[in-house]
Design a protein that fits this description.
This protein has helices at residues 2-26, 69-73, 112-116, 163-171, and strands spanning 51-54, 61-62, 79-87, 93-103, 122-125, 139-141, 148-149. The chain has 172 residues and is an alpha+beta fold. It has a domain at 51-149: 2-Layer Sandwich (Alpha-Beta Plaits). Strand 3 and strand 4 (93-103) form a beta hairpin.
């Protein structure tokens, strides 16, 4: 009987201790920020990896040449580079980008794709809201329809001197 009363008072004491702690914290100011309200002011770290996007200029041009290095370096095969062959005006066949698909659902945000891209065509943004109701909505086409590769100007080639002119310069 003594043990029963001892356990009863021990339980009441533990309950009162918990109530004192709860009462003390109940009157403190809130430290939790509500997510939907602070969405515009939420700051991300400089190296935050939120969403992979194409670097597209105002003329709907991108830098991707369709080499597929990013897709080969992706450990989860989150990227799929689909190319097509096009015949140019001078009769040569050229590989051009048709679709660049990004599966956000299998991406681990390791950034191996952006590091391996020699053209620097893909980059990370700070967008972190990716909630969808359907998994198929997580597969995104990064290159917009009708986009094309930025035309790069060929570097000027210095004219070669004639062999006789080189010998004359060496003799002087």
């Amino acid at each position: 009987m003594v043990k029963y009363i001892k356990d009863l008072f021990s339980g009441i004491y533990a309950l009162l201790q918990g109530m004192v702690i709860t009462n003390r914290n109940f009157w403190r100011p809130k430290v939790t920020e509500q997510y939907p309200e602070d969405r515009q002011t939420a700051r991300q770290f400089e190296r935050f990896r939120g969403e992979l996007v194409f670097d597209i200029n105002d003329n709907n041009e991108h830098k991707c040449i369709g080499c597929g290095l990013c897709a080969r370096n992706c450990p989860n095969q989150s990227l799929e580079v689909i190319t097509k062959s096009v015949t140019t005006e001078d009769g040569k066949t050229k590989k051009v980008l048709d679709k660049f698909l990004y599966d956000l659902g299998s991406c681990t945000f390791c950034s191996l794709c952006t590091q391996s891209c020699a053209q620097k065509a893909i980059k990370w943004t700070n967008n972190f809201e990716h909630a969808v109701y359907n998994r198929s909505a997580l597969v995104k086409q990064l290159n917009p329809e009708g986009s094309k590769v930025v035309e790069r100007k060929a570097a000027p080639v210095a004219p070669k001197q004639a062999p006789a002119a080189e010998q004359n310069e060496n003799q002087q």
